[in-house]
Automatic annotation (TrEMBL):
The keyword DNA repair applies. PANTHER family: DNA REPAIR PROTEIN RECO. It comes from Cedecea colo. InterPro entries: ARFGAP/RecO, DNA_rep/recomb_RecO_N, NA-bd_OB-fold, RecO, RecO_C. The gene is recO. Gene3D superfamilies: Nucleic acid-binding proteins (2.40.50.140), Recombination protein O, C-terminal domain (1.20.1440.120). Involved in DNA repair and RecF pathway recombination. Keywords: DNA damage, DNA recombination, DNA repair. Belongs to the RecO family. It comes from the Bacteria. Coiled coil: none annotated. This is DNA repair protein RecO. The keyword DNA damage applies. Residues 4-76 form the DNA replication/recombination mediator RecO N-terminal domain.
Length: 245
């Protein structure tokens, strides 16, 4: 199995009459762009294989920015995502595509991604906890370090009922100001543990990841959010997108 890697397709688009241009997220090489020659032809044995959320074994060749896919095999059937969980999965794929530098190894994040997609596929309720855990894992792997458990001003452990205001590059500092950048100690402990036992902690996690990811995403809107907006009119019970914007 020399040269083979575990991978997922993040995004694909037509390339010439019979080929596909793929963004892959691989275990050893991170995000890689490859051309799958002939993958769109009627006789291709890759037809139906190179789909998002399908666990793959792949290998490629080439030294340029765009590689050539040599082989691909599905390890299993695609993880079953539907409805809001499908849009959540598309958001995760877009996030990885937008944030990670090409051909930079993120082996641990690869498994965080896998666990997130598995959680979305098995979700009976809201996908939000799985999304927030992945976002926090992503921030950690990008080197975004923040201490949720101690006041940046005093060094003391955060208290559940106390309010702390987030200051970029400093951390959380005890404050009487309550605004979009303020979090209770209870919410900060939930962020540290990546466990969200109630609606308040889940909303706080979304507020924090929204702020923390903004510099990485820039001003370009997320396509997955636009797709979700088109989906909402058909599903009025879904009030807000599953992403961070």
């Amino acid at each position: 199995m020399e040269g083979w890697q575990r991978a997922f397709v993040l995004h694909s688009r037509p390339w010439s009459e019979t080929s596909l241009l793929l963004d892959l997220f691989s275990e050893e090489s991170g995000r890689v762009r490859v051309i799958a020659k002939g993958a769109r032809s009627r006789r291709s044995n890759l037809k139906g294989t190179l789909q998002p959320f399908t666990p793959l074994l792949v290998r490629w060749s080439g030294r340029g920015e765009v590689k050539t896919l040599r082989s691909a095999e599905a390890v299993s059937l695609a993880l079953p995502l539907g409805g809001i969980c499908l849009y959540s999965g598309l958001y995760v794929n877009e996030l990885v595509s937008r944030v990670l530098e090409q051909e930079t190894r993120f082996s641990e994040l690869f498994f965080d991604y896998l666990h997130c997609i598995q959680a979305l596929a098995g979700a009976n309720g809201t996908p939000e906890p799985a999304l927030r855990r992945f976002e926090l894992a992503l921030l950690g792997h990008l080197g975004y370090g923040v201490d949720f458990l101690h006041c940046a001003g005093s060094g003391e452990e955060v208290a559940d009922a106390m309010t702390y205001r987030y200051r970029e590059e400093k951390g959380f500092i005890a404050s009487l100001v309550v605004d979009n950048s303020s979090f209770t100690g209870h919410e900060l402990k939930a962020l540290a543990n990546r466990e969200f036992p109630d609606v308040a902690t889940l909303r706080a996690a979304k507020r924090f990841t929204r702020m923390a990811l903004k510099p990485y995403l820039g001003g370009k809107p997320l396509k997955s959010r636009e797709l979700f907006r088109q989906f909402v009119p058909k599903n009025p019970s879904l009030k807000s997108p599953p992403d961070t914007q």
